[in-house]
């Protein structure tokens, strides 16, 4: 099954019945799949007039207490940033999918990872965070959807799945978890009509008194701290005796794995740390490795964005090198292998 | 003693934030009376805009969502599509609805989205201190048109009811005012009809209420009402611009 379609089917099976979107390459398969499937399962597919409207429709649906979703690609995600800030400020759970393409500007339509900063740092104004997940296989796309909804509902934080054109278009076999695995979480805060049984619920982000706003941001920050403690996700590959740790996520991680296997054949002790959650960033994994390895190599399809999070944790203790391609160019395993050899002093 | 007048039960006891003579208070009360009379407080969700009525979420006893500037119809769409058996209304000013939120307004209307929009047109941005609105009249002095709105520079006002009436989606569009008692009665009837249209599943309904802003117009409340009658009403004629509520079964 194609990555984008698998992700859409997984959302439906996780209980999403409300999809709002706007066409943009390379994620249109998600919208097309939703348009076909939603009417069959009694759900809503709505093609909005803009990305701005689509994300605000998600806000309305999330306020109503249902599992809602939108998907887009980099320039479209930029447009959604206003609504995402409001959703985060209203403590509403929802799912946003960003199938990244090359930028800035209209950029290109080929795979890229240049939205790392946008999604982990810059998506909307104010002191806020989003849950960010970066799957690297089609099966993981499916599993991540379930996890993303569950964590979003649990913590009342919007979740982003960060994929790229390569994963979205890739075909791989998948199996879907049972639908009843999608645990329902009570939402007593939802604005779904009080029916005379409770006082009115208000979903709002306006707090004109500075003390009240500061207090609300403080309380939200406590929740973020809990997330940072409990929800870091990563995978390690051949790290046991590694002296060089490659750090890569998503499609880059798949390429890095091939390069690592080839390097191991030349006797080089190199392993991979693959962040699955980008926020919270798996600081624990980098911290543990910083005490063991001699250096790090970040591989990204960008000019180097995630590397800042790695350097923050490493904090100057070990060298952190970078190799990246951008603009829609996918690095080959050979390029990465060459970089590993350069760093480890092996033959070239 | 007999009670001859009381606040609708669908308004909270919160103190309104409006200036003396502002007609928001009247319009919000008409909406609250409608919700009370139709017995729909428990199933209604209101969407507050950005502007002077941003804190409307504190005034109504029904569930409320506060939307970003101009996005109320999109938020209302998300709510209504998730809760088709509930009643969803937005309460928006002219800058919110006809400038920054034009796309959301036009497309909710053309989709025939089954929501009710209360549109308060007072020809100025009140909350930010009196700048030109999309409905500011030609020649009208505002903070950002200090020599009067020159259409050659600042463009022409938007006639929202007339514009939306060209679309097939809306079920009911009417422009009313609240400048005197007979007109307040008509406004109430229009607002009630708009909510009833939604309850009957007829589609998009909007009531535009020509309103005042004494503070930013630089007039007393009474002068503001006269200015409205002399200047606003000739430019924004009252009346029904679309009414498909009597058509067929939906």
Automatic annotation (TrEMBL), chain A:
Q: Which UniProt keywords apply?
A: Oxidoreductase
Signal peptide start-end: none
Q: Does the keyword Oxidoreductase apply?
A: yes
Q: What SUPFAM superfamilies does this protein's entry cite?
A: Thiamin diphosphate-binding fold (THDP-binding), TK C-terminal domain-like
Q: Which residues form the Pyruvate flavodoxin/ferredoxin oxidoreductase pyrimidine binding domain?
A: 9-230
Q: Name one Pfam family in it.
A: POR_N
Q: Does the keyword DNA-binding apply?
A: no
Q: List, alphabetically, the CDD domains matched.
A: TPP_PYR_PFOR_IOR-alpha_like
Q: Which GO MF terms are attached to this record?
A: oxidoreductase activity
Gene3D superfamilies membership: 3.40.50.920, 3.40.50.970
Q: Where is the Pyruvate:ferredoxin oxidoreductase core domain?
A: 242-336
| NCBIfam families noted in UniProt | PRK07119.1
Q: PANTHER family this protein is in?
A: SUBUNIT OF PYRUVATE:FLAVODOXIN OXIDOREDUCTASE (PTHR43088:SF1), SUBUNIT OF PYRUVATE:FLAVODOXIN OXIDOREDUCTASE-RELATED (PTHR43088)
Protein known as: 2-oxoglutarate ferredoxin oxidoreductase subunit alpha
Q: What is the lineage of its organism?
A: Bacteria, Bacillati, Bacillota, Clostridia, Eubacteriales
TrEMBL record, chain B:
Q: Which GO terms describe its molecular function?
A: oxidoreductase activity, acting on the aldehyde or oxo group of donors, iron-sulfur protein as acceptor; thiamine pyrophosphate binding
Q: Pfam family of this protein, just one?
A: TPP_enzyme_C
InterPro entries in the cross-refs = 2-oxoacid:Fd_oxidoreductase (IPR051457), THDP-binding (IPR029061), TPP_enzyme_TPP-bd (IPR011766)
User: Which residues belong to any copy of the Thiamine pyrophosphate enzyme TPP-binding domain?
Assistant: 57-209
Would I find Endoplasmic reticulum among this entry's keywords?
Answer: no
UniProt GO BP: cellular respiration
Superkingdom of the source species = Bacteria
SUPFAM superfamilies to which the protein is assigned, alphabetical? Thiamin diphosphate-binding fold (THDP-binding) (SSF52518)
The UniProt keyword set, sorted, is: Oxidoreductase
Q: What PANTHER family does the database record attribute to this sequence? A: 2-OXOGLUTARATE OXIDOREDUCTASE SUBUNIT KORB-RELATED, SUBUNIT OF PYRUVATE:FLAVODOXIN OXIDOREDUCTASE
User: What is the name of the protein in this document?
Assistant: 2-oxoglutarate ferredoxin oxidoreductase subunit beta
Q: Which organism is it from?
A: Harryflintia acetispora
Per the UniProt record, the lineage of the source organism begins with: Bacteria, Bacillati, Bacillota, Clostridia, Eubacteriales
């Amino acid at each position: 099954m194609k990555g984008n379609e698998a992700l859409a089917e997984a959302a439906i099976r996780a209980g999403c019945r409300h999809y709002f979107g706007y066409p943009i390459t390379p994620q249109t398969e998600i919208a097309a799949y939703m348009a076909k499937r939603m009417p069959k399962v009694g759900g809503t597919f709505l093609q909005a007039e803009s990305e701005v409207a689509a994300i605000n429709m998600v806000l309305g649906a999330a306020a109503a207490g249902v599992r809602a979703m939108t998907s887009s690609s980099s320039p479209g995600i930029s447009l959604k940033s206003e609504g995402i800030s409001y959703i985060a400020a209203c403590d509403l759970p929802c799912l946003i999918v960003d199938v990244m393409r090359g930028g800035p500007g209209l950029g290109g339509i080929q795979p890229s990872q240049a939205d790392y900063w946008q999604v982990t740092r810059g998506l909307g104004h104010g002191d806020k965070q989003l849950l960010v997940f970066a799957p690297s296989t089609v099966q993981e796309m499916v599993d991540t959807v379930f996890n993303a909804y569950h964590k979003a509902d649990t913590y009342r934080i919007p979740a982003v799945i960060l994929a790229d054109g390569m994963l979205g278009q890739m075909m791989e076999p998948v199996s879907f978890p049972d639908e009843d695995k999608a645990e329902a979480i009570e939402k007593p805060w939802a604005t779904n009509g009080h029916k005379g049984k409770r006082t009115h619920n208000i979903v709002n982000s306006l707090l004109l008194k500075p003390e009240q706003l500061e207090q609300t941001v403080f309380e939200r920050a406590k929740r973020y701290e809990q997330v940072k403690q409990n929800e870091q996700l990563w995978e390690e590959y051949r790290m046991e005796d590694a002296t060089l740790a490659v750090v890569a996520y998503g499609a880059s991680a798949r390429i890095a794995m091939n390069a690592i296997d080839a390097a191991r054949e030349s006797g080089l002790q190199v392993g991979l740390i693959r962040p699955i959650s980008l926020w919270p960033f798996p600081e624990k994994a980098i911290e543990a490795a910083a005490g063991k390895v001699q250096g790090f190599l970040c591989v990204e399809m960008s000019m180097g964005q995630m590397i800042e999070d790695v350097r923050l944790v490493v904090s100057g203790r070990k060298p952190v090198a970078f190799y990246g391609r951008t603009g829609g160019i996918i690095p080959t395993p050979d390029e990465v292998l060459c970089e590993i050899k350069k760093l480890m002093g092996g033959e070239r | 003693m007999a009670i001859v007048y009381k606040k609708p039960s669908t308004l909270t006891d919160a103190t309104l934030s409006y200036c003396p003579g502002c007609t928001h208070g009247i319009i919000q009360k008409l909406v609250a009376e409608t919700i009370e009379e139709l017995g729909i407080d428990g199933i209604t969700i209101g969407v507050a805009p950005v502007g002077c009525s941003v804190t409307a979420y504190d005034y109504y006893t029904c569930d409320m969502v506060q939307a970003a500037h101009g996005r109320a119809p999109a938020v209302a769409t998300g709510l209504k599509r998730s809760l088709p058996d509930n009643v969803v209304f937005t309460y928006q000013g002219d800058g919110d609805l006809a400038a920054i939120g034009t796309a959301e307004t036009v497309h909710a209307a053309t989709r025939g989205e089954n929501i009710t929009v209360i549109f308060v047109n007072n020809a100025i941005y009140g909350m930010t201190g009196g700048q030109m609105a999309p409905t500011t009249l030609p020649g009208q002095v505002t903070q950002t048109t200090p020599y009067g709105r020159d259409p050659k520079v600042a463009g022409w006002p938007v006639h929202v009811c007339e514009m939306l009436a060209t679309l097939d989606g809306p079920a009911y569009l009417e422009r009313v005012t609240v400048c005197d008692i007979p007109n307040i009665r008509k406004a109430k009837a229009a607002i009630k009809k708009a909510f009833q249209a939604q309850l009957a599943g007829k589609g998009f309904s909007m009531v535009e209420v020509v309103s005042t802003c004494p503070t930013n117009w630089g007039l007393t409340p009474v002068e503001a009402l006269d200015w409205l009658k002399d200047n606003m009403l000739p430019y924004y004629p009252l009346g029904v611009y679309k009414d498909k509520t009597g058509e067929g079964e939906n």
